[in-house]
Amino acid sequence: MSFAHDVKIEVISNKIESECCKLAFLSSVIHSCGELTKSGNDFFLELKTDIYEIFDIINDSLGTLYGLKANIREDVENNVAKQKRYVITLPKHITTQIMFDCGIAKHSLNNEFTLIHGIDEHIVENDCCAKTYIKGVISTASTSSIKINDNPSQVDRKFSGYHWEFVFSSEEFADDFSTLLFSQNIPNKKSKRKNLWVLYIKESEVVSDLLATVGAFKGLLKLQNEIAIREVRNNVNRQNNCMNANISKTVNASLRQISAINKIKNTIGFDKLPINLRQLCLLRIANPEESLENLTKLLPNNITKSGINHQFRRIIKIAENIDNKKQRNKKN
Asked: pTM for the whole thing?
């Protein structure tokens, strides 16, 4: 199972105790995954989900609030990629009452049945109800690209981003849910994708706050562990890149120095050089791969790394003068 699926199961694993929170959960899942149809004067309300365990919470809520239970069946037509989906049907004779109680419908001035596409503020006025409402939406209308690898020692690990999103068919509901998330200090952004509205989070810290808000502490620990592993890997990669860059820099400098030394050796000879430069040329030829810092340890005098670098610049300058002299002689 995916990390998102595990989080959803954890989110709905804790029993909802208070009646106000049960109503908030019922309202959130109806808004998020409910489909309302009308036949004559009757309304039919179905909830479509891939999380079977939601059925238990809905039944518990219906039992407390109305003394009734829902029905569930497998959604054979919409099962894709071997992933089961389910259709939960709410009791037909109290569907209208449920819609009114959950703040999803109301009577207009003409006493007509009117749907409410946003979130009824009375449903989420208590902090416990607001968090329960978010739980319902997470379990029915959210997806995530976060991948958790349970084998930290695995060398070839492909890291995904920290992306969590909520998908809605109503912009009004998306806006209200965005406001609800902000009220819980969970910043989010909105975008439109075809005919759907998407709220998304991309920062690991915010996703962590979201999981903490809804009590998904097992998922939070997994995420924090993944963040720590990725940070260690990133630090190691940065160090390796820096080390490789330094090695490459040392090798290129050494090749340039040796080229200049050979130029001098094959033309004017080392005897024309001052004793300190002559000594450095012989040392470099004998130690072509050593860094300047290591060369300072091989010289008898207390020369610094900066001092050796200055001497190599003199050697390279002498070699360049030899080339320039050859070019002038050719022209003449």
From this structure: 0.72
